[in-house]
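Methods — Computational structure assignment.
A single polypeptide chain was analysed. Its primary sequence is given first, followed by the predicted tertiary structure written as structure tokens.
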Amino acid sequence: MLEKLKNDVCKANLELVEKGLVIHTWGNVSGKDKKSGLIVIKPSGVSYKSMKADDMVVIDEEGILVEGKYKPSTDAPTHLLLYRTYESLGGVVHTHSSYATSWAQAGRAIPPFGTTHADHFYGEVPCTRILTKSETEKDYEINTGKIIIEKLGEADPLTVPSVLVNGHGPFTWGTDADNAVYNAVALEEIAKLAFYTVLLGKTEPIDQYLLDKHFKRKHGKDAYYGQDKDNI
């Protein structure tokens, strides 16, 4: 069942290790099959060193196990809520990557200090409020998803493809699992650049016109970055 998606999701999870975004068993990637609505996700607590495509877990939109020998990631309820809320999402990633998590632990959004940021995120990378004690003690993972959605508000999730969960770490998404990992890698580099920018004393973001130019030349109907598909 969903063998290609299992392979894609497994590969995406292993890429988190390759790119230095996770250690031990931290982090997870999922992918959604748009036709069936089923989700493939990393199993909970299984080592990346031994992970295979057959280890991936298939669940439905309510989190019920459809196929797999392992339990799904404990973060599965967060992934599922994001998928249910945003039809455009085909992949979700959660990591504890060093720089992005540092901003999350500080409870600080990442301002768009320069054009590298603007190439990937249309505005700041937002940070949620802290979860309350009651939200943490009951339905923790679902409430994590709720505060991500709360923070995004009316924003298109594909123009702001990551939110930092206050005190926790980043969640990132994309059109599929591979694109979600791409965005997670970009986020970590942007978080690193922003960290050093603040150390050097800059606190103000770039002007809106420059943010607009760099984001819109890569994204949207008027984008002109890269090659036409017919020329590749």
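Note: The longest helix spans residues 177-199.
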